[in-house]
C-alpha cells in the first residue's frame, strides 16, 4: 500500500495544516519509506517468538514497606507559613 499525494493532502486538511507543494512531496516520500520498511518487517517469521510486553524481564525495584517512627508534628509544622489545627493551611485554589 502506497501513500499518494492526495492522501497527504487529506491528512493535512484534517490536521488543519497548510503544506507547500515541496512539503507534500517530501511527506509523501517519507511516509512511503516508512510503509516500505514495515513491509520488510512483515516478511519476518515471528511464529516461534512468544508475544512480549517488554524486552527485558520486569522485577519490582521498590523496597518493602517498613513501619518506622515519623517526625514530631510540632517539629514539622514549625516552619509552615500557616498552620491550623495541627495541619498545613494553604490558600484555596479554584
Automatic annotation (TrEMBL):
GO molecular function, one term: glutaminyl-tRNA synthase (glutamine-hydrolyzing) activity
Superkingdom of the organism of origin: Bacteria
Keyword Membrane annotated: no
Pfam family membership, one: GatC
Protein name: Aspartyl/glutamyl-tRNA(Asn/Gln) amidotransferase subunit C
Annotated signal peptide: none
Organism: Formimonas warabiya
Keywords: ATP-binding, Ligase, Nucleotide-binding, Protein biosynthesis, Transferase
Annotated EC: 6.3.5.-
Record-level GO BP terms: glutaminyl-tRNAGln biosynthesis via transamidation; regulation of translational fidelity; translation
SUPFAM superfamilies the UniProt entry points to: Glu-tRNAGln amidotransferase C subunit
Entry keyword Protein biosynthesis: yes
InterPro entries the UniProt entry points to: Asp/Glu-ADT_sf_sub_c, GatC
Summary of subunit composition and partner proteins: Heterotrimer of A, B and C subunits.
Role summary: Allows the formation of correctly charged Asn-tRNA(Asn) or Gln-tRNA(Gln) through the transamidation of misacylated Asp-tRNA(Asn) or Glu-tRNA(Gln) in organisms which lack either or both of asparaginyl-tRNA or glutaminyl-tRNA synthetases. The reaction takes place in the presence of glutamine and ATP through an activated phospho-Asp-tRNA(Asn) or phospho-Glu-tRNA(Gln).
Catalytic activity from the UniProt record: L-aspartyl-tRNA(Asn) + L-glutamine + ATP + H2O = L-asparaginyl-tRNA(Asn) + L-glutamate + ADP + phosphate + 2 H(+); L-glutamyl-tRNA(Gln) + L-glutamine + ATP + H2O = L-glutaminyl-tRNA(Gln) + L-glutamate + ADP + phosphate + H(+)
Family: Belongs to the GatC family.
Amino acid at each position: 500500500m502506497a501513500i499518494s499525494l492526495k492522501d497527504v493532502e487529506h491528512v493535512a486538511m484534517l490536521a488543519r495544516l497548510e503544506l507547500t507543494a515541496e512539503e507534500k512531496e517530501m511527506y509523501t516520500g517519507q511516509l512511503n519509506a516508512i510503509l516500505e520498511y514495515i513491509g520488510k518487517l512483515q516478511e519476518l517469521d515471528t511464529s516461534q517468538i512468544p508475544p512480549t510486553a517488554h524486552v527485558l524481564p520486569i522485577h519490582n525495584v521498590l523496597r518493602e514497606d517498613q513501619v518506622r517512627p515519623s517526625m514530631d508534628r510540632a517539629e514539622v509544622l514549625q516552619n509552615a507559613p500557616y498552620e491550623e489545627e495541627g495541619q498545613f493551611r494553604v490558600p484555596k485554589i479554584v
